[in-house]
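In response to a reviewer's request, we include the raw inputs and outputs for one of the modeled complexes. The two entities were modeled together in a single run.
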Amino acid sequence: MGSSHYLALSAILFALGLFGIATRRNLITVLMSIELVLNSVNLNLVAFSFERSDLTGQVFAVFTIAVAAGEAAVGLGLLLALYRLRSTTELDRARELEG
Amino acid sequence: MEKLLWLVPLLPFLGALTNGVLLKGRISQRGVTAVACGSVGLSLLAALASIGGYLTNGAFAGGKPFELVLWSWVPAGLVSLGGGVLADLQIPFAFLLDPLSSVMLFVVTFVGFLIHVYSVGYMGHEEGYQRYFAYLNLFMGAMLLLVLGNNFLVTFVGWEGVGLCSYLLIGFYYDQEFPPYAGRKAFIVNRVGDFAFLTGLFALVSQYGTLEYRKVIEAVAANPEKATSPYLLGLSLASFVALCLFVGAMGKSAQIPLYVWLPDAMAGPTPVSALIHAATMVTAGVYIVVRMNVLYQLAPGVSLFVAGIGAATALMAATIGLAQNDIKKVLAYSTVSQLGYMFLAAGVGAYTAAIFHLGTHAFFKALLFLGSGSVIHAMSGEQNMQKMGGLAKHLPVTYRTFLIATVAIAGIPPLAGFFSKDEILAGAFGGGHYLLWTVGLLTAGLTACYMFRAVYLTFHGEFRGTHEQAHHLHESPKVMTVPLMILAVGAVVAGWVGIPAVMTFGKDVNWLHHFLGPVIAEVPEHGGEHAMSHALKWVLIAVSVAVAVVGIGIARRLWGTRGVAADDAFKAAFPAVQRTLENKYWVDELYDATIVRATWATAAGLHRFDASFIDGLLVNGARHVTVAVSMVSGFFDKYVVDGLVNLVGWLSRQGSRALRSAQSGLLSQYALALTVGVVALVCLYIVMR
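The model returned the following structure tokens for the whole complex.
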């Protein structure tokens, strides 16, 4: 099992995440899709770290997970605030800042 | 007392101001009467006091006039008279009281006052009572200025003033069709004369540097060579000025060819006719000619012209008077005729006789007009003598006074008209103007004839009016008959101030001659009248009286016995003559065909030029050009300027639309864009590798 397998899985995950972001309207689903995209990146980092026997990539992956956790917390906070304001989690309904 | 002179014209002006402006419509009829008659009455008293004061002080005895300078009016200063001569031209606003203006002043104020009083009765039921009296007072004021002015300029103000007032009063009934037309005609015809009058004044100013009568007369008398030297149009200075003044007088005093306004002036109220004809306006021309007699004596040609015009006017108007049926028209032509008499006198050098006749005429003509007014009043406005007749028993006072005036104008002694007319005829005969004398004599006979025709048709025979009119007939109220009686006294006695010496068997009691002596320049060749023998004078008197009696006799034979039938018989016998006289020799028609028509045609041509060229081509052309230019400009503005502006707006909108879509706020779109971007980057990487 070479690194190309990891890369392929990562690409599939990335594509799934991107598809979710692009097509879903529910903010929760979008957030979940973003996690998929982040995880596909993490998978790539870990895969290259393993192949090159360099731990730096794994450290970065841990950082990413930490940041993603923070991001999820913030995202959920925004989600709650949006729900309170609009009684919905539909993304298309939150367009106040559009140009 | 003569210091009161300034009050004489001022009072009527104040009356006119009060009635016409200050208290217009805010005063009772009684108040209007008080103001109007009161002002003229006081003016009469002031005039009498002034004349009395002048006659009793030393200046009169010394033959000097009294001058009252009120203020400096035209301080023109030094003016050049040509040839390096300078004159100090100062025209004061000043009044002059000398024998001539005293006579005029008395006649104007006295007769004018009686006409005012009479008007109270005559106009009592008329609309515009206050307006009428305002105009009448204004008329008096203007006429008094004319008479009293000590220079031509003050006189000219009055001269124009009476012209204006005649226009206002003749056109008094402005809601009818004819009176305003007649008023306009009087005004315009007078303007023709005024133009010549002004020309004469300019000639005087330019040659003598003064307009004061005294100075002009002194200058002319001091230097007759200058006055008789050639001046303009082949005339001497004296002739030119005299001619100009006489043309002005032709207009004011209704002489051929400018007499046409006066018969039409009958359209005004009857007392106005009396005032215009007897005491004011029409006498102004005679007054000016007599006032300037110095000039006329230096211009024998012009004097002869004056006499000729006067005689022609006298005869022509008398013949027309014979065929008129309107009682006022008869009197109007009689006035024209009598004024011709006065000019005949002035023309032959009998200036005193001219003024004498002016004075006596004022009394009996005012009386005739007021009497006709009384008749018209009784006949409810009817003026046609064909529809009168037999009024003597209904209007006894009017009849008697009218008859006295008629006898006076016919020239029967010892009434006023006889003396003055006889003096004129004697003057013409004595001056060797036998043709003029014959014309005058003929006119006298005609005058007697047509005046008695008026009396017979109006007062004798059977009443020919409607039953209603017959029922309504009444004598006029006291306020009208008393002035008639006073004037009747005047018509009898006014001539006694100038009884010729021959009738008093050598005793010289011709008071007027002595009185007017100082203002009449010596006439060297005028000795003819004095040179006539007593017998010849008696013959002349007898002839003139005989002619008058014959005239009366003819009138009595024709109209006294046959009434209107005589007119019809005459008409049947001489239809052409009758038509010519009835139509007044077609002079009005002649004017209409030539001057009036030509003026209208010129005006119409100018109008067409104005309408087609000025309005059509220039004004409307400019309009079209402006419209076209503005259309082009509007098109450019709309499509080019606005188009550019809109293009900028459109570009901004399109740009904003493009940019806005990048900021839709739709996360999914952003994600799509991101995806596309990534794919594009990957593709780019693959291709570039």
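As requested, we also summarize the result in words. Chain B touches chain A at residues 659-660, 662-668, 671-672, 674-675, 678 (CB under 8 Å). Strands of chain B lie at 66-80, 86-97, 230-232, 235-236.
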